[in-house]
Amino acid sequence: MTGSIIFDPLIPWSLLVMVGMIALISVMLAAVRGLNGWALRALAAAVVLAALTGPSYQVEDRAPLTDIVMLLEDESASQTLSDRPEQAKSAADDLATRIAARPNTEVRRITVPDGEGDAGTELMTALSAALAEEPRARIAGILAFSDGQVHDADLPLDLPAPMHLLMTGKSTDWDRRLEIRNAPAFAIIGEPVTLTLRVEDMGAAPQGSGMAPLEISVDGDTPQSYQVPLGQDIELPITLPHGGRNVIQFTVPEADGELTDRNNTALVQINGVRDRLRVLLVSGEPHPGGRTWRNLLKSDSSVDLVHFTILRPPEKQDGVPVSELSLIAFPTRELFLEKIDDFDLIIFDRYKRRGILPALYLDNVANYIRQGGAVLVAAGADFAGADSIYRSPLGEVLPAQPTARVLEEPYRPIVTDLGKRHPVTTGLPGGGDWGRWLRQIDVAQPQGNTVMSGVDDRPLLILDRVGEGRVALLASDHAWLWNRGYEGGGPQLELLRRLAHWMMKEPELEEESLTAEATGQTMRIKRRTLSDDVPPVTLTDPSGNIAELSLTETSPGVFEGVFEGPEIGLYRLVNGDQNAVIGLGPAAPREFEQTIATSEILAPVIAGLRGGAIALEDGLPRLRNVRIGRPAAGRGWIGLTPRDAFETRDVRQTNLLPGWLVLLLSSALLIGAWLREGRR
Question: Is residue 458 within 8 Å of 443, Cβ to Cβ?
Answer without folding.
Answer: yes
